[in-house]
Design goal:
Elements: E1 2-6, E2 11-13, E3 23-28, E4 31-34, E5 40-44, E6 49-50, E7 59-61, E8 68-73, H1 137-140, H2 149-156, H3 159-163, H4 166-201, E9 207-208, E10 213-214, H5 217-241, H6 245-260, H7 263-266, H8 271-300
Antiparallel strand pairs: 1-8, 2-7, 3-6, 3-8, 4-5, 4-7, 9-10
């Protein structure tokens, strides 16, 4: 039995040989499975049990900030049995003899292969490290579990659950995100255009001194739509390649919004125009950023 620690945002590749007969239990934090095509898979909460043999899962990720821990049990791994020496009790006549990789049989134990009660007179010699398989072998194989949670998880978990439909799941998530993003884009374009029209009605002239051109109302809608679609593309890319897409999208979007507030100060326009342009930059950001962030969280939960 060993414990795997995953730092926040960390990733560890799955080595098939190490997980061949292993069973994992999340004992701290959350662990997300990375499917065979790199697509984010299910997120396993604390006390969730799982195995990876034959699933095609290629890595384990920690989607949270705190360190997550997975306890890995390999019940079939048995050390070789050393030969009997002085001070080592021997089995009585008629009892199955221990061979390489077979634990000694003692009172109150079960033979690992035949399931018959042991008839030996003692336990393995000190320092041999030979395990005994006691009654209730399945529970003894998982001594860390306070109850039958692990056994129930093994009975209810199968390979199909972990590996089924990665392509369909990916398409569903992307279509859902893109659909939500396009609806939010239309809403941002509408709200921004209405806000610009209201500003004009209040006497704000969207005139740029360099060239003396006035920004038309459709221009606000076009620019808002373009940069909103860019935001949807960034969100889709983070959903595909990031273990924490919602968090990284929020940081990226806020940074880009802050950068977009610089040009109005450089245009040389009137103070009222600069203030109005700043507000028109913040309006679509207030629509797009929360909407896409919530959508990303819902698709990675």
């Amino acid at each position: 039995m060993r414990t795997l620690a995953l730092r926040g945002g960390g990733r560890v590749a799955v080595v098939a040989a190490e997980w061949r007969d292993a069973f994992g239990v999340v004992v701290r934090g959350r662990v997300q499975l990375e499917l065979r095509d790199g697509e984010p898979g299910p997120v396993l909460e604390r006390d969730a049990g799982f195995w990876l043999r034959g699933t095609g899962v290629r890595a384990l990720r920690n989607p949270g900030r705190r360190t997550a821990k997975v306890r890995i049990i390999t019940p079939k791994a048995r050390p070789d049995t050393p030969k009997a020496g002085p001070g080592t009790p021997e089995a009585r006549p008629g009892a199955p003899k221990a061979g390489p990789g077979t634990p000694e049989v003692g009172p109150g134990t079960l033979d690992a292969r035949t399931g018959t009660p042991g008839v030996g007179t003692g336990t393995p010699g000190a320092g041999t490290g030979i395990p005994q398989v006691r009654a209730g072998a399945r529970r003894a194989a998982y001594p860390h579990a306070p109850h039958r949670t692990v056994e129930n998880d093994m009975n209810s978990t199968n390979d199909t659950t972990l590996a089924a439909g990665p392509a369909s799941g990916r398409i569903h998530r992307f279509l859902g995100l893109v659909g939500t993003g396009l609806v939010a884009t239309l809403a941002a374009m509408t709200v921004t255009t209405l806000a610009a029209a209201l500003a004009q009605a209040l006497g704000v002239a969207f005139e740029i001194p360099d060239g003396g051109e006035t920004i038309p109302l459709p221009g606000f809608a076009v620019v808002t739509g373009f940069f909103s679609v860019v935001g949807v593309v960034i969100a889709a890319a983070l959903l595909r390649w990031s273990a924490r897409p919602a968090e990284w999208f929020g940081r990226t979007a806020v940074a880009l919004t802050a950068i977009s507030l610089v040009p109005p100060f450089l245009a040389g326009a009137a103070t009222t125009t600069v203030i109005a342009l700043l507000c028109l930059h913040l309006v679509p950001a207030a629509v797009m950023i929360p909407t896409l962030t919530r959508s990303l969280r819902a698709r990675t939960a």
